[in-house]
Amino acid sequence: METYLCPKTISIFFIFLMMGCHIIHCSVTYDRKSLLINGQRRILLSGSIHYPRSTPDMWEDLIRKAKNGGLDVIDTYVFWGAHEPSPGNYDFEGRYDIVRFVKTVQKVGLFVHLRIGPYVCAEWNFGGFPVWLKYVPGISFRTNNEPFKAAMEKFTQKIVGMMKSENLFEPQGGPIILSQIENEYGSQRKALGAEGFAYLNWAVNMSVALNTGVPWVMCKEDDAPDPVINTCNGFYCDKFSPNKPYKPKMWTEAWSGWFTEFGGATRHRPVQDLAFAVAHFIHKGGSYVNYYMFHGGTNFGRSGGPFVATSYDYDAPIDEYGLIRQPKYGHLKELHSAIKLCEPALVSAEPDTISLGSNQQANVFSRKGVCAAFLTNFERNTAARVVFNNRHYNLPPWSVSILPDCTNVVFNTAKVGAQTSRMRMTLTTQLNSWETYTEDLSLLDDRSTLRAMGLLDQLNVTMDRSDYLWYMTSVDISPSESFLHGGKKPSLTVYSRGHALHVYTNGQLSGSAYGTRENYRITLSTPLNLHAGSNKIALLSIAVGLPNKGQHFENWDMGVLGPVFLENLDQGRMDLSKQQWTYKVGQRGETMNLDSPNGASYVEWTEASLFNHQQQPLIWHKAYFDAPDGNEPLALNMRSMGKGQIWINGQSIGRYWMTFANGDCGNCHYSGAFRAPKCQLGCGEPTQKWYHVPRSWLKPKQNLIVLFEEIGGDVSKIFLAKRRTATVCTDTHEHHPSVLNWHTESDGDKTVVHTTQVHLNCAAGESISHIKFASFGTPSGTCGAFRKGKCHAQNTHSIVEKMCVGKGRCKVKVSNSFFGTDPCPNVLKKLSVEAVCDVVSNATHLKLN
Ligand SMILES: *[C@@H]1O[C@H](CO)[C@@H](O)[C@H](O)[C@H]1NC(C)=O
Ligand SMILES: *[C@@H]1O[C@H](CO)[C@@H](O)[C@H](O)[C@H]1NC(C)=O
Ligand SMILES: *[C@@H]1O[C@H](CO)[C@@H](O)[C@H](O)[C@H]1NC(C)=O
């Protein structure tokens, strides 16, 4: 690997000092143990935060929270389709201001992994590719194809060039220490054979030739040629090894949860299992872990992939709204501190594995004065008592204990000491004075339509300018047809390749059908009300995000491709597929930009109260509202609506859909191998009823909300809520291992205090207003539903109250002496507390004084 002489002058040198650069050579290289930053091996903890999935005013806070959570690196994909909406027309503004994002990470003092792709998958529309790319003559995606390679090279050069000109690569004094080319290419390459290999080699040569001065990685590509590092993505990566002994073992996507699809339940990954996976990876020699996602955020606009919900929360340590999710965040923060205590041993020593039992082992890193050990119990159901270095250790099922000095346990992945938070949505604004505008289907067939014989591919017509495409045709019915004289009604059958479909006959809705992420295809059969003479049939085909993965997904067709036929006519079946169809892209309201403040003033809106629109489809609604006070995150409750899109002041909040979660919300236990369907939440509820409204999109007064409803719903029940922490809890045993107990004495010796301390923290600007529950003894239950046990120290409540009420954060010890008495000798006790946080107001200040 090359090293670089730092360019530039004094001020840059200052940044190096601040970033811990002791030598003038600034570089990022690697060896078999880890990445080396300025010559130093590092254990690096990273988290994915995708800049377009939040707003620029949220970025710094998110990155600071990531830093406080113990991360060193922020990882993001680069979203080509967002940046180049048409060839050569670039957009790097607002949420797409990638330079500002990288500079914000730099300002906070973290590194960046820039995953350029430019194929990113990411549950993003078209996998991150712009749709126009499909129409470049002769193109074939992600293979040895000249037009594709030319376009990919041009965009990669563009991004690298921008970063270089802003001095953002580490050798230039910037934060970028790593870049990714392609994404999870392995399976595609295998399917493509020689062409796949040729493309892989080309991609490596192309990217290395860009001379960024930092290493390139390829994830899930076992054959990544040198000098590119192949890396692992998955729920676990302990079994992964890089393809050369001189490459470090890196995990580019440790899945913190899973994405939500419309029609599915939300997914949860217990933090005990995530921490287990990470600790296990580190003691197997891993030196880089990136959480995918650390903050998932929101798929604003139409940016989500097929059936991907607007919320991309991902059960990440920072929730969709930018609030800390506990105990996930806190437990990982402690894990990160524990790993950092082991870093000197991890980067210098070779691991030694010692069996401690049939399903237990120690992994020891010991060398010249440093020693760190990880004790693992692989049993799914039983705890183990093991002997290591002549001492006894208790290991809960499916857990790793971390011993940064090979003696004292500072962390166990299954013992959660971090506080738990329960969130609540508080109604703040009922939206009212709605006005409506109904799409007029009689105007559909105007001069702007396209005519063709037969059925066309939806994307080929819309070019993704809209989710909606109308397919229209007509059928002539003879007055002699028997159904007009009491016979059986004719029925229409439509085969569509997705994703949703509404059938209109002579302007009336006759039927609807929906695909799923697993199966886009739809077959709809519905009886039609036809009359003698010419009848208009209009099929509204709706896209819910373009494919983001799959072999040559650019060639997948979609929409109504037939056959379409009528049955029960006197002639039998009438095939409509090959006859003349007319096509119209989008709704009239879209053409008139009704979603924007200017467009909304062009049409005559009707006061909603003047007619009952509840179950009518294809209606635009608008209302105005003032911004709620405070700075808590906001969300719209859309439970009373059907399916459509929402805009506020012209900004798209995203697609909404009250489709119900079909899933198995059975038992969820942290132990045992995790899979995406394991821990589902919210079965039988709408997949997503809350929609994030970024504060920065609001002005103090008169905000315009516009929504387009496809099916029908009751706008009078829509409301805006603030997302707040309802209560915070702790539930911690005596003798809980904790990094917080680890102290370095002035002479450099480490000591461990064995009294457990727990912390309760409210969000910034809030303080604990009262204690709902507190018991030191043997309480049971979980946060929100604690109960006293047989053993209970009577004064727990008053002591915790005295320590905590009125404070933004407080510390309580879990010990007999702290509560002045041992309520039940020889019993292992714990402290359970539930505290309520409230916004600090002048009133509470007064009360305290
Ligand atoms: C990549 O570069 C190597 C070394 O310069 C060269 O031998 C090889 O032919 C190149 N491969 C491709 C596909 O360009
Ligand atoms: C859509 O357009 C592409 C590119 O022009 C073409 O290859 C493809 O056959 C079209 N698909 C359909 C179903 O017409
Ligand atoms: C607290 O009181 C001061 C002075 O009366 C006032 O200026 C301030 O806005 C109040 N703050 C809150 C949060 O109510």
Automatic annotation (TrEMBL):
Gene source species: Lithospermum erythrorhizon
GO terms, molecular function: beta-galactosidase activity; carbohydrate binding
Keyword Zinc-finger among record annotations: no
GO CC term, one of those recorded: plant-type cell wall
InterPro entries found in the cross-reference section: BetaGal_gal-bd, Galactose-bd-like_sf, GH, GHD, Gly_Hdrlase_35_cat, Glyco_hydro_35_CS, Glycoside_Hdrlase_35, Lectin_gal-bd_dom
Superkingdom of the source species: Eukaryota
Residues covered by the SUEL-type lectin domain: 752-838
Protein name stated in the entry: Beta-galactosidase
